[in-house]
Amino acid sequence: MTAPNAPALSPQEQEKAQAAAAAVGWVRDGMVLGLGTGTTSAHFITQLGERVRQGLKVQGLATSVASEALARQVGIPLLEPRRGLTFDLAVDGADELDPELRLIKGGGGALLREKVLETASRYLLVIADSSKLVPRLGRFPLPLEVVPFALPWVLDAVEKLGGAPALRMAKDDPSAPVYSDQKNLLVDCHFGQIADAERLAAQLKTIPGIVEHGLFLGLAQAAVIIQDGQAQVLRPGQSARPATEFAELP
């Protein structure tokens, strides 16, 4: 619900909030949740906090310092990392996704923690506005998280792969590089359309100094995408179906 004096949401933000609302509707008492990072995930966390204040009992672990702060602010009980911890559901946004639910993530700089938590989840649900669905990945630059010492050699290696890498710089200070929550550097790679995401992921894994890349392959079970104003559920290789058809997780 929007506060009386809150500014009106843009159409894109309305879509993000709508996708988040569908996801919140599938959260059940007792779930352990992975909380994503980014503007769409912030809508989910905020709406989940409203449900918690109404009596929903869940616990979560956030994929970034920013999401952790928001979750604490809205009253979601948080866990600490520990051995054996798995998540019933992780909910996160994506910078791009294709019809097979391959993802590019990391525009918010949280790709390492996102991949750690989402790999440890039984179910990853992606929530996104209509602009994020693409026929083929690659329009959005592919993020890498890189150990600072290794940066020059990582840039050389990615350049050889055709990635046109660029060190991510702060928007308010173009001379200052952006660091992840783990104090690593972020590099954005411009490959253009990615013909074989699995092959590229394997190639990037062989480059020393890349802590993680932003290709999330084979992790998402479903996605909620807003199309023509309606929340639609996508599953790998299947036609979209209205989210209202699903009383539980699709």
Task: Tell me about this structure.
There is one protein chain. The protein is α/β, with parallel strands linked by helices. The protein folds into two domains: 11-131 and 218-237, 3-Layer(aba) Sandwich (Rossmann fold); 142-213, Alpha-Beta Plaits. 27% of the residues lie in helices and 24% in strands. The protein is built from six helices and 16 strands. The protein has helices at residues 11-24, 39-53, 65-74, 111-119, 151-160, 197-205, and strands at residues 32-35, 59-62, 89-92, 96-97, 103-104, 124-128, 142-146, 165-167, 169-170, 173-177, 185-189, 210-213, 215-216, 222-227, 230-234, 241-242. The strands form four sheets. The protein has a seven-stranded mixed sheet, with helices on both faces. Helix 1 crosses helix 2 and helix 2 runs parallel beside helix 3 (65-74). The radius of gyration is 18 Å and the shape is globular. The model has no long low-confidence stretch (mean pLDDT 96).
Give the tags:
four-stranded antiparallel sheet; Alpha-Beta Plaits; 2 domains; 250 residues; Rossmann fold; alpha/beta; 6 helices; seven-stranded mixed sheet
